[in-house]
């Protein structure tokens, strides 16, 4: 393999953000939500596996189109300026010059088509295909590709909602295909899962506020004052806490909030780190770790409860 091919392969890997696995962890939560007899059922495993593979391609298309839009409007060039050593330019192949616009656009459409085919296959082979699940998958696919392209949801004030809603859908959809059910406990875990990416995304938006304002991308951080944005992030963190406390009423065990104490404590530290100490990017990185910790906790809780 030539050096050029290796370099190009790395560029596409970074374009697809394949090192950021946090949305993909949803299928692990789904698998542990299943009854023990279903966890190793061939049909269930095939369905969840194909859905996960489709998810990888759909998200690759979504983030590639987001990079292309961010490059064209100049926000990525501003946010990943050469003098900001903590924002790694090589993670943005267009900004780094390792891919051009045509290559990124072709990659986005190719991965989008493959992702659609895989999700249709998952629906076709699934043990269950309730209408709400099929509609959820179709809507998720459509709006994923419209996040920064086409209608550009993230440029019309829907960015924060979409980041969370994508996580909710990526738990509920495979769960519906595998079980045909919609339970309060599964819904609660889907909501918690979706808040994880949101609670590191809002710290990214806080850091990127100047670039987003310059191109008119209406994130909460860009639309409000620094103080208003801080209260928004505090509010989202409080909503996560309220949801954790409400899980026993939604079908979870009484001790569920105790199991999530590490998440609760870590959120407090994240807020202090980001807004009291002013280290937004460290708070963002901590948010990624908190999300993964929460997923691990959900998995362990499910393995204990669902037997």
TrEMBL record:
Gene Ontology terms: cellular component: membrane
Mode of membrane association: Multi-pass membrane protein
Classification via Pfam families: UbiA
Segments traversing the membrane: 21-38, 44-65, 107-125, 131-149, 161-178, 184-205, 226-248, 254-278, 290-306
Molecular function GO terms recorded: prenyltransferase activity
Keyword Manganese: no
Protein's UniProt name: Conserved putative membrane protein
Origin species: Amycolatopsis japonica
Domain of life: Bacteria
